[in-house]
Structure formats: structure tokens, C-alpha cells
Design goal:
The chain has 3 domains: 277 residues, Ribonuclease Z/Hydroxyacylglutathione hydrolase-like (Metallo-beta-lactamase, Chain A, 4-Layer Sandwich); 152 residues, Rossmann fold (3-Layer(aba) Sandwich), CATH 3.40.50; 91 residues, Ubiquitin-like (UB roll), CATH 3.10.20.580. It is built from 17 helices and 27 strands. A hairpin with a 5-residue loop joins strand 25 and strand 26.
């Protein structure tokens, strides 16, 4: 654990600086700490049996009462989703905007986490959190009440962008107002900590209002049922779909628990005014197919999502069939392509048309994150002394860093998770590193990413397993026939492979037969010799070493 200079100002990304998701950022000065965002990420094939990942809060947990607060910039899962899992390790006040607070309280309640001090901050208000004075500045994004943070310290002002874009006609909220950013730039910005998602993408992200028009045009080309899959937290997109559906003569049902939860929060905050009521799944099933449209979870191919279940025929309720259409109104998060393609292939095999942004000239999705022209505009407004790119994989961070240099910003620092960046005094620079990592949500427990159970599962994915149990008497003689259990190795309906199993039994007897009487009386020796010998035999027969365990019962 580094000993931070209390007289300096530091920025430490603990998550989100090398991957999409698991965002957790820290500011430190005068021996006190401020955390920004606490999100989840999606697990890939490296984490068998795991769906969700979390940032490791160990560094913040160690600060105790010196952690003065946690700010949530908006209600997307990669910024808010980790709070319910990790707050009890932090136990600090939470500050956020009205809609985000509504979503957060529901998440905490569902998780059984109680007595959490959630402070609601109105847009443009300023709150004092320890040595930090933080103004919540609204920005356009694909969810209501997103905000950038103007963090004033004794060393100067930091602008932490959160997720944002310059949508000129957002469906929820107002366009990003340049005035506060220009004013901050005129007074001096010490550092811009900015969203890197689309830093390599030229142009602008586009407008959510154009999606409504594009979806309406797309809907009119479809003859059967339509399913549109999105991120459940994209309230603006839900509104666009509802409006486009009404114009094209379709009624809309909502399918997926997370969508229902988000919609409930949006209605509570008065964000769904003028939107037609959604119909139930039961009423949806009774509609003529050409009049039916559903919004479903599963845009990232999540195995347990509504769309994935529908594609497999596992969903109880609504269904899709030949001639129907699924529209992916979301971009794939890097790393999710395999799962998404599995869902697409299952749908296509059933004769269902699959439409993505690559398959149509209609605008059916725009990003909520700034592209290069928008980032350039932000640089011009703020004129920051330093740029620290965050929110993305290393390639996106490097792309924004390179662009900042091209934009004549003198100091640019590309962090990794755990980088201790001293923002002041002096030019921004990396001065130390904190050991950090990723946690995995393993159903009813939270474990480190390098937990032995995950490592073993990963091995089993590639090697299978062989378990041997045998009983021996006090003279070192085998009693009865050893039991061999295999997983992921043989097809017992294949005669040739059954012969390999027979040879395995013979190999057990031969290995024990080669031991001396004294060696056969040593349970550990017997088990280890069998383990090594059988692994060697499997390499000879199959070409790889399965996970092998041997249990010796002495009778």
C-alpha cells in the first residue's frame, strides 16, 4: 500500500482503465478520499460459471473513515451495478442525481442492503465532500440525469466527464450545455479525466432523435413480430422505440426483469410522460403478429437474458418464429461478440430475421459516448493542463491520449488500473502503483479473479477430469475393482473409446504391480504414483493431461 503525499492531489483508477465496465475511480488529497462510480463488467470465457465482475475495493476499504463519499455519475450498470455488492465494505455516503438515486435505492433494496445514506443532488448543485467541492453538471447521454463532475480542490479544478456526448436533440434531458465547460476552461482546468470509448471513431455520435425515425422506417419493412433488444438502462431508446412503434401501428410489450425495474424508476421520476402504456406479455401473445413488438433484454448475448432464452426456445411466455424479426439496437461491448453471435445463429436457424446496424441504412442505434469531433470540442472548451483518458480498453485510452497530443495538450498520462497519478503539484505523472484486481460474482459469493475455483474450472474446460477411487487392505492388495470416473474425456457409446477405458483399468493394476510391498503400504505414494502414471497414459492415448485425482481407501 503506497504512502500518498497528503499535500499532493492524486487520481487513482481502480477499475475501468483497461477494460469496459467495472469503473471505480479515486481522488485523494489531505489524507482523504473521494470515490467516483462503482460498476460491474461482463465475464467472458476466462471465467467459467461467472456472469458478473466487480472492481476490487480493498484499497478504499483500507482507508476507513477517510473515505468521505462515493459519487455515482449515472445509472448504467458499468457505473452503478457494483454498489449493492460492495457498499458494505465501504460504508460511506453516496451522492448522485434524482433518477440515479431512484435506481440505486431499488438495487440496494433488492440486495437486502439497508441504511445506506444516499444523498440526492440536483443538476448544477455543488456539494462539499471532505476537502472536495463537487458540482454536478448535466450532460447528454443515453440515460437520464447523467452528469460530469467539476471537482474543486486546493490545487485546482478537475473535470471528471463521466459518460457523455453532444447529442443536439436528446430524447431525455437537454443537450450538453457548453457554458459551464467554457467557464471552467476560462478559469483554468488542472486535469480532464475523460471518456475514451469512441476516441478512435471519427465524427460525432449522432442523435437519439434520429434513432426514432430510423426505427420507424425499419419497423415498416417487417411483416411478423418484432423484438428489439437494447441495454435495459437506455431509457431514451425505450422512448424512441415506443414512439416509432406507435407511428408504425404496433403495440409494445416489455420483456425482461431489468427492463421492468428501469421503467418503474423512470415512471417514478416522471420521465415517461406522453408514452403509450405498454401491454402485458399475455396480451402481446394475443395480438396479430404484424401488430406486435416487444423490447427485450439480451443485447450482449447474456445467457440468462430474455432474448437468449427466446432464441433457445426456453422462455415461458412470448416466442418468435419464422418470419419474425429481431433488431439489435445496441453496439456489442468488446469481448461479448461470441455470445452475441450464438444468439444470432440460434435465431437465424429458426428462420428469424436478424438486423444489426451493419444490415440496414436506417439509423437504429447511436452511441451515448463522444466521438473525436465531440472530444475535440470538449478540449477546446476546457483547455485542460492535462488529459487522463479512462473508460475503455488500453487501445481506446491510447487513442484519446494520441488525439490530446495532436490537440496541443502538453501533458497526457495513460493509466492502468492501480496507477497512482499525481495531478499536483507539478505536471501530472504516475508516481506509484496500487495492487488491484477484479472480483467475480460467483452466485452467492464474491471471489477474486484468481480464486482457485475459477482456475480449476478453466482447466477443466480444456482438459476434462479423471477420478480414480480404490480400496486396499493392510497388505497392500487391491480389494475389488477400482472405480474410474471421467468427465469430458470419452463417449461411452463409442466402442473404440470404451476400449481405452478398459486399458485404464489395466494401467492402474500395472502401476500398482510395479510397486514394492512397502510402497503399496504408503497411501500418499500410491495415490501420487497413480496420478502421475495415469496422466502420462492419457497423454499417450489422447494427447493431453486431464485433471486427475486419486483416492485410496485403506481397509
Amino acid at each position: 500500500m503506497p504512502d500518498l503525499d497528503k499535500a499532493a492531489l492524486h487520481f487513482i483508477p481502480l477499475g475501468g482503465a483497461e477494460q469496459f465496465g467495472v469503473n471505480l475511480n479515486v481522488y485523494a488529497t489531505q489524507g482523504q478520499f473521494l470515490a467516483v462510480d462503482c460498476g460491474i463488467g461482463f465475464a467472458d470465457e476466462r471465467f467459467p460459471g461467472i456472469d458478473l465482475l466487480l472492481p476490487d475495493p480493498a484499497f478504499l476499504e483500507a482507508q476507513g473513515e477517510n473515505l468521505k463519499g462515493l459519487i455515482i455519475t449515472h445509472a448504467h450498470e458499468d457505473h452503478i451495478g457494483g454498489v449493492a455488492y460492495l457498499w458494505e465494505r465501504l460504508e460511506c455516503p453516496i451522492y448522485t442525481t434524482p433518477f440515479t438515486a431512484t435506481v440505486l435505492r431499488r438495487k440496494l433494496e433488492d440486495a437486502g442492503v439497508r441504511k445506506v445514506p444516499v444523498h440526492v443532488v440536483k443538476p448544477m448543485d455543488t456539494v462539499k465532500i471532505g476537502p472536495f467541492s463537487v458540482q454536478f453538471v448535466p450532460v447528454a447521454h443515453s440515460i437520464p440525469d447523467a452528469c460530469a463532475l467539476f471537482i474543486d480542490t486546493s490545487h485546482g479544478k478537475i473535470v471528471h466527464s463521466g459518460d457523455w456526448n453532444l447529442d443536439p436533440r436528446p430524447v431525455t434531458g437537454k443537450p450538453t450545455d457548453p457554458a459551464p465547460f467554457r467557464e471552467a476552461g476560462a478559469k483554468g482546468v488542472l486535469a480532464y479525466i475523460g471518456d475514451s470509448t469512441n476516441a478512435a471513431v471519427p465524427g460525432v455520435a449522432g442523435s437519439e432523435s434520429d434513432v426514432e425515425t430510423g426505427l420507424e422506417a425499419q419497423f415498416r419493412t417487417c411483416t411478423g413480430r418484432i423484438a428489439v433488444t437494447i441495454f435495459s438502462s437506455n431509457i431514451g431508446r425505450i422512448i424512441s422505440i415506443a414512439r416509432a412503434a406507435k407511428k408504425s401501428g404496433r403495440s409494445v410489450a416489455i420483456v425482461g426483469r431489468s427492463l421492468h425495474r428501469m421503467l418503474s424508476a423512470a415512471r417514478e421520476c416522471g420521465l415517461m410522460k406522453g408514452i403509450p402504456d405498454f401491454i402485458s406479455e399475455e396480451d402481446f401473445s394475443a395480438l396479430p403478429r404484424e401488430k406486435a413488438l416487444m423490447i427485450v433484454t439480451g443485447s450482449q448475448g447474456e445467457y440468462r437474458s430474455a432474448l437468449a432464452k427466446i432464441s433457445r426456445g426456453d422462455f415461458r411466455g412470448v416466442s418468435l418464429s419464422k418470419g419474425d424479426t429481431v433488431i439489435f439496437s445496441a453496439r456489442p461491448i468488446p469481448g461479448n461478440d461470441r455470445e452475441i453471435n450464438e444468439v444470432k445463429n440460434s435465431l437465424a436457424a429458426g428462420g428469424i430475421d436478424v438486423i444489426t446496424t451493419d444490415d440496414t441504412d436506417n439509423i437504429i442505434h447511436v452511441s451515448g459516448h463522444p466521438c473525436r469531433d465531440e472530444i475535440a470540442q470538449m478540449f477546446q472548451w476546457l483547455k485542460p493542463a492535462a488529459v487522463i483518458p479512462v473508460h475503455g480498453e488500453h487501445a481506446q485510452l491510447v487513442a484519446q491520449a494520441r488525439f490530446a497530443k495532436e490537440s496541443q495538450i502538453e501533458t497526457v498520462v495513460v493509466p492502468r488500473n492501480g496507477s497512482v497519478i499525481q495531478l499536483a503539484p507539478g505536471a501530472a505523472r504516475i508516481v506509484d502503483h496500487i495492487e488491484t484486481g477484479i472480483l467475480a460474482v460467483d452466485q452467492k459469493r464474491i471471489i477474486p479473479q484468481n480464486h482457485a475455483s475459477i482456475t480449476e474450472r478453466r482447466k477443466l474446460q480444456f482438459t476434462g477430469a479423471l477420478h480414480v477411487s480404490l480400496a486396499m487392505n493392510a497388505r497392500g492388495e487391491i480389494l475389488g475393482e477400482p472405480r474410474l470416473d471421467t468427465m469430458g474425456l470419452f463417449d461411452e457409446d463409442d466402442a473404440a473409446e470404451t476400449q481405452i477405458l478398459d486399458k485404464l483399468y489395466e494401467e492402474v493394476e500395472e502401476i500398482i504391480g510395479d510397486m514394492t510391498k512397502e510402497e503399496r503400504l504408503d497411501d500418499h505414494f500410491v495415490a501420487e504414483e497413480l496420478r502421475i502414471g495415469l496422466r502420462r497414459f492419457m497423454v499417450h492415448m489422447l494427447g493431453f493431461k486431464p485433471k486427475t485425482s486419486v483416492h485410496v481407501l485403506r481397509v
